[in-house]
């Protein structure tokens, strides 16, 4: 995509603004962002279901914007996968091949291949009404894949499945994409899905690209406070601070020994919940952030402690804690784990 924008309502709604990005051959790219940020619109423009208001879209060296969807050789799967109810699973999968005039023998072969790939061989003679939601979604994926499209587009395809199935389908989809080596763009608002499946994640907000990075990099180096507040569960804590000649003074009245490499005088200090320690005794450190425990949630894998520090709530993840609601506690963290964002919210 080269500087692709999409406006609706005579320009009043900016669905996408100057999207610049590339998807490599065989890559699994995820568009991640909150609801309404323009993910579906971007995908529909790649599919040809929507024309850009501005900019260019290329498949390899061929400009495709303005080209009808049928000429692009893309397959798209939506959240609400619509199967033909009066056709069996087999007939549903076979249909796109029939329409394209593929001879019966080759049709049988290709349908059998994708059925095996998606583990739905036993459901082939059932009607869509007789199979589970997960099997219906597998069938719609099979119907998309059977055409051997050059680009596979998926718009929140797992949203209608229950949590267990979603997990299962997540790794299935990744496996299938790997096996076929098919260039894929996957849209989701679910960061776990994005992190687990994406080779590369494109973070969108307000119709613009906020960061393009591999999952690990996105987690390790969120480029802006917006991305930092969006990634992680719970996301990074951000403390407002003032940078005075090499030390950061937090609004909470504490001085952090954080090396202030920023030229900005107003800064945000970001610390991940898992990088903060909470203790009921005053720890033997140069400084602490004193606060009051609001809630303690034992979540099995870890304990989530919400601590009020100077009017704002700080999320802390610890293996275990003696602290209970109402306790006065001290928070500490290694300054090396802190991120320093400038007045524009940039690293
Ligand atoms: P997402 O998929 O990230 O939830 P969308 O791409 O569906 O976001 O929508 C982005 C913005 O564009 C929203 O404000 C939405 O209301 C608007 N929008 C999308 N499609 C249309 C349309 N056909 N007409 C008018 N506005 C639209
Ligand atoms: Mg959408």
From TrEMBL:
EC supergroup of this enzyme: translocase
Compartment(s): Cell membrane
Record's bilayer topology term: Peripheral membrane protein
Catalytically driven reaction(s): D-xylose(out) + ATP + H2O = D-xylose(in) + ADP + phosphate + H(+); L-arabinose(out) + ATP + H2O = L-arabinose(in) + ADP + phosphate + H(+)
Record domain ABC transporter: where: 1-231
GO BP term (any one): carbohydrate transport
GO function term, MF aspect, one: ATP binding
One protein family per Pfam: ABC_tran
Family matches, as InterPro entries: AAA+_ATPase, ABC_transporter-like_ATP-bd, ABC_transpr_MalK-like, ABC_transpr_MalK/UgpC-like, Mo/tungstate-bd_C_term_dom, NA-bd_OB-fold, P-loop_NTPase, Transp-assoc_OB_typ2
Secreted is among the record's keywords: no
GO cellular component terms, A-Z: ATP-binding cassette (ABC) transporter complex, substrate-binding subunit-containing
Keyword line: ATP-binding, Cell membrane, Membrane, Nucleotide-binding, Translocase, Transport
PANTHER family registered for this protein in UniProt: MALTODEXTRIN IMPORT ATP-BINDING PROTEIN MSMX (PTHR43875), TREHALOSE IMPORT ATP-BINDING PROTEIN SUGC (PTHR43875:SF15)
Record function comment: Part of the ABC transporter complex XacGHIJK involved in the uptake of xylose and arabinose. Responsible for energy coupling to the transport system.
Family to which this protein belongs: Belongs to the ABC transporter superfamily. Carbohydrate uptake transporter-1 (CUT1) (TC 3.A.1.1) family.
Subunit structure: The complex is composed of two ATP-binding proteins (XacJ and XacK), two transmembrane proteins (XacH and XacI) and a solute-binding protein (XacG).
Record's protein name: ABC-type D-xylose/L-arabinose transporter
UniProt source species: Halorubrum hochstenium ATCC 700873
Taxonomic path: Archaea, Methanobacteriati, Methanobacteriota, Stenosarchaea group, Halobacteria
């Amino acid at each position: 995509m080269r500087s692709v924008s999409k406006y609706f309502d005579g320009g009043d709604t900016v669905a996408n603004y100057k999207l610049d990005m590339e998807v490599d051959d065989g890559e699994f790219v995820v568009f991640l962002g909150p609801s309404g940020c323009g993910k579906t619109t971007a995908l529909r423009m790649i599919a040809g279901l929507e024309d850009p208001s501005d900019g260019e879209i290329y498949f390899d060296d061929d400009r495709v914007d303005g080209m009808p969807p049928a000429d692009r050789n893309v397959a798209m799967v939506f959240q609400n996968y619509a199967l033909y109810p009066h056709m069996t699973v087999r007939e549903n999968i076979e249909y796109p091949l029939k329409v394209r005039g593929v001879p019966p023998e080759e049709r049988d072969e290709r349908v059998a291949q994708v059925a095996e790939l998606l583990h739905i061989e036993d459901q082939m003679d059932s009607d869509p009404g007789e199979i589970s939601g997960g099997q219906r979604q597998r069938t719609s994926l099979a119907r998309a894949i059977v055409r051997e499209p050059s680009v596979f587009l998926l718009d929140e395809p797992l949203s209608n499945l229950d949590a267990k199935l979603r997990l299962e389908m997540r790794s299935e989809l990744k496996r299938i994409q790997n096996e076929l080596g098919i260039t894929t763009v996957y849209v989701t608002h679910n960061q776990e899905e994005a992190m687990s499946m994406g080779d590369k994640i494109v973070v969108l907000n307000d119709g613009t690209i906020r960061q393009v990075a591999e999952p690990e990099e996105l987690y390790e180096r969120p480029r802006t406070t917006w991305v930092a507040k969006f990634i992680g569960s719970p996301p990074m804590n951000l403390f407002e601070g003032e940078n005075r000649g090499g030390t950061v003074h937090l609004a909470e009245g504490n001085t952090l020994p954080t090396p202030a490499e920023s030229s900005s005088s107003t800064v945000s200090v970001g610390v991940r919940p898992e990088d903060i320690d909470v203790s009921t005794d005053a720890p033997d450190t140069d400084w602490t952030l004193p606060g009051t425990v609001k809630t303690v949630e034992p979540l099995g894998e870890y304990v989530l402690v919400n601590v009020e520090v100077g009017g704002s709530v700080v999320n802390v993840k610890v293996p275990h804690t003696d602290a209970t609601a109402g306790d006065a506690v001290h928070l500490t963290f290694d300054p090396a784990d802190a991120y320093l964002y400038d007045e524009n919210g940039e690293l």
